[in-house]
Amino acid sequence: MNKPLAGAFLAALLLGAGAAPVTAAESAGNASAVPAAAAAPAVDSPTAVPGAAAAAPKAKAVTFAGTVALSNCSGSVVRSPDAAPTDPALVLSNGHCLESGFPGPGEVVVDQPSSRTFTLLNASGSGIGTVKASKVAYGTMTDTDLSLYELTSTYQQIEDGYGIRALELETAHPTAGTAITVASGYWKRTYSCDIDGFVHQLKEGRWTWKDSVRYTPECQTIGGTSGSPVIDDATGKVVAVNNTGNESGQECTDNNPCEVDENGEVTVREGINYAQQTYTMVPCIGAASKIDLDREGCALPKP
Fold first, then answer.
1. Which Pfam families is this protein grouped with (predicted)?
2. 198: which strand partners?
3. DSSP E strands, 8-73
């Protein structure tokens, strides 16, 4: 997993050494350098030429708007397509970024009180305010690696106070070849690459994740990028959450996940990084943006 970074001292150390900022999580390995957040469509108004084919619309520009910095990881303010402006806002990150430590295999955290704070970023990556959690609505490292915090602020209050709209969660399984951006609020850095494919089982130490996203080699995420939203460049929607990478070519050890296919064959890809899909969360978000693991279609692990 992308190691969660140990505060500003390590950040200063890395920056002083000329290291490029990236994600934070638990095992250093995921770092994408590309602004992640709600993106405004690029405006291009070419002069119309009679008989010429219309220019293809440009992809939305990905920015940092809506991303957040945790004390040790990255994250983002997210919403389901059906969220109401008056719903309490949700922050997405990794399960291994929880302040209580890594959940063990089979462990699921729900409705745990939390007063954690997050630095909210604008499009350019500047911190523009602090939002606060009321609880950990959901967290696990079983089958996936995610956490959802419920905030004390509503989506409308965040938009009115800071001009920031939450990033929308994609409802469908992403496809290979999709151009993506990993936007790290911790490092204020983005990484651009494509979805290379999907992994039947991704094993790292004691944990196993299912149907993980594999990046093409360009996304060299690092510690601190853990929890960063993975954004579809064409739609601006969140399709995954950045979480790990194979650092030294070891097989299935901490910080060195391995791929296991349907036949049990193991593949190690040194230097390749991964994310966990997020469309599976959407059916679990009910009225008032509350997590309801009993909703129809919700397949997230239960306590």
1. Trypsin_2
2. 213
3. 67-69
In the DSSP assignment, the letter for residue 176 is T
Q: How many CA atoms are closer than 13 Å to the CA of 103, on its beta-carbon side?
A: 26
pTM for this prediction: 0.83
Query: Alpha carbon of 247 to those of 54, 197, 258: distances in Å?
Result: 45, 19, 11
Contact partners, residue 219, CB within 8 Å, separation at least 6 = 30, 31, 32, 180, 182, 191, 192, 193, 273
The Cβ-side half-sphere exposure at 194, using a 13 Å CA radius, reads: 6
And the tokens for 213?
A: 């996203």
* Tens digits of residue pLDDT in 70-79: 999 999 999 9
- The CA-to-CA distance between both ends of the chain, in Å, stands at 22
H-type alpha helices, 255-296: none
The b/e string for 258-286 (b: 16+ C-beta within 10 A; e otherwise) is: bbbeeeeeeeebeebbbbbbbbbbbbbbe
H helix and E strand count, the chain: 2, 16
Residue 50, Cβ neighbours under 10 Å: how many? 4
| Residue 139 to residue 144: CA distance in whole angstroms | 9
Residues in the chain: 303
Beta bridge partner(s), residue 273: 245
Sign of torsion over alpha carbons 122, 124, 125, 126: negative
Q: What is the CA radius of gyration of the chain?
A: 18
Structure tokens that stand for 241 in this block? 């959450």
Cβ atoms < 10 Å from Cβ of 41 = 11
Q: What is the pLDDT of residue 21?
A: 29
